[in-house]
Amino acid sequence: MTADKKLSFQFAPGTQWQYSGEGFEYLRKAIEKKLKRPFEDIARETLFEPLGMHNTYFNWNGTIDEQLYAVEHDENGDPIPFEKYTQTNAAANLMTTAEEYAIFMIHILNGAGLFEKLYDEFFRTQSHEKNGIDWGLGMQLLPELPNNEVAFMHTGGDYGTKTIAIGLKNSKQGLVLFSNSENGMVLWQKIISEYFGETGKEIVRRNLE
Length: 209
Hints:
Layout: H1 21-35, H2 39-48, H3 98-109, H4 116-122, E1 127-130, E2 133-135, E3 140-145, E4 149-158, E5 161-168, E6 174-179, H5 184-196, H6 198-208
Antiparallel strand pairs: 1-2, 2-3, 3-4, 4-5, 5-6
């Protein structure tokens, strides 16, 4: 985004990588226009309900069990005021539980209901982020890990919230970590290294480079 708050291309498409939340939003709007339905309804019908993800939402509404919401905390352990988002954003603010996001990751490990050709494309490098971390279709890819592994990974967070989800394509292992603390990265570095062993240590190393 430019200084005058207008969107513009930073470089010629296909020449380099840069995260774009606006890109996910453009895709959401294209899907809604094509199917003439709200994105939240499409996601609920095609993904959330079939997988039993009953506590997963893109925005606050009257059906949310607020007792499940973990309030964010700063680096000193103090609660942070939070905003209840009422509009769907495909690039941010998904509300779910670690258990339900794990169900989603298992769904991907088991093929995600996709044709084989499209599933293979999900794991094909579409662009390079940095040494050892690429991007496939919507998630980061970490190829050539120890034990002949390929990982797909998604991270997220704002101030006071740090999350990471990792799946190993070949061994079908996975890990989902949600933290409502600004210190969450310290926690997940240790857990990933311990849980996945040498593969986990390499995942952490590439993330911290």
